[in-house]
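#lab-general

N.A. 3:47 PM
ok so I finally got the sequence cleaned up, no stray characters, all 137 residues accounted for. can someone with queue access submit it? mine expired

B.Y. 3:52 PM
send it over

N.A. 3:53 PM
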Amino acid sequence: MKKIVKTTIFATILSSSLFAHGQPDNIFGMSTMVTVMPTVYVSNTSSKSKTPKEQKQATAQQFIEENRESLEVEVAQGEGEKLDTLATLYEVKEKSKWKRGLQENYEEIFYDKDEKKKTTIEVTGELTLFIQKNFNF
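B.Y. 4:20 PM
back already:
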């Protein structure tokens, strides 16, 4: 740390000295010019605004995608923290009925007719469809 501070002080004195003598371009063969790069921010919004319902649905779908495995276990059990969070995101008022309905439809939501696990996208679609059909979301 002492070495870095000493080097910084020396470089600052040296560069000040060179600037004073009309040689600001080169210190030990290195340019003294400082380039400032602008920061670029990328927005993930589209030009079309989403309705509040579409925003809620997008948030719920993202939650499903990020928590698919936990949700599968909790739907099978009929209870759980992630399931409660999803109910809140979908603004479900009758949570116990909702959880029971999901539990009863577990196989249909998470497995296809050949008993293979559905993809996360398929599960997200099934959960969204179930909620829209049964709970007027």
